[in-house]
Design a protein that fits this description.
It is built from four helices and seven strands. The protein is an alpha+beta fold. The radius of gyration is 15 Å and the shape is globular.
């Protein structure tokens, strides 16, 4: 097993209809406004860009994004990642309950940042906890953002 490979799954229950949730998630350039750990997003064109992420641990992750699927009918947004993280990430947005939404985030990546690869075995529990904190903060930020719009 490659200790630098990660699979993540996060489920966000949000008190807003699926349409506005999907639209907020498809505008990645706005993520830094509501997701504190997404520090910077730079769009290169309509389907690609770069992101800088930093959570609790004292390091940045820089990754290029290339959209591979945008399907509003199915509620799917998917990107290919390269850089410090190499792999893919996908949002699947679906109605849940009378006025809510379930946003499912899946990610499968290989960590390429040399320091994190060297710390793969002892740091793995910390890296997973760091990701969980980031996702929890993102859910709270998106819920607040949706209430404000």
């Amino acid at each position: 097993m490659d200790r630098s490979r990660y699979r993540f799954l996060s489920l966000w229950s949000l008190p807003a209809p699926a349409g506005p949730v999907y639209r907020a998630l498809e505008h990645i350039e706005d993520y830094p406004r509501w997701w504190p750990q997404v520090r910077e997003v730079t769009r290169h064109d309509a389907v690609g860009g770069a992101v800088r992420i930093r959570s609790v641990l004292p390091f940045d992750l820089r990754t290029a994004l290339r959209e591979t699927r945008r399907d509003p009918v199915a509620g799917i947004l998917e990107v290919h990642l390269s850089g410090d993280l190499d792999g893919w990430a996908r949002w699947t947005v679906a109605p849940a309950g009378p006025a809510g939404t379930l946003a499912r985030y899946e990610q499968e990546v290989d960590v390429r940042k040399p320091l994190l690869r060297r710390l793969a075995v002892p740091g793995r529990p910390l890296f997973r906890a760091n990701h969980a904190l980031m996702m929890r903060s993102g859910r709270r930020g998106l819920a607040a953002h949706l209430r404000a719009v």
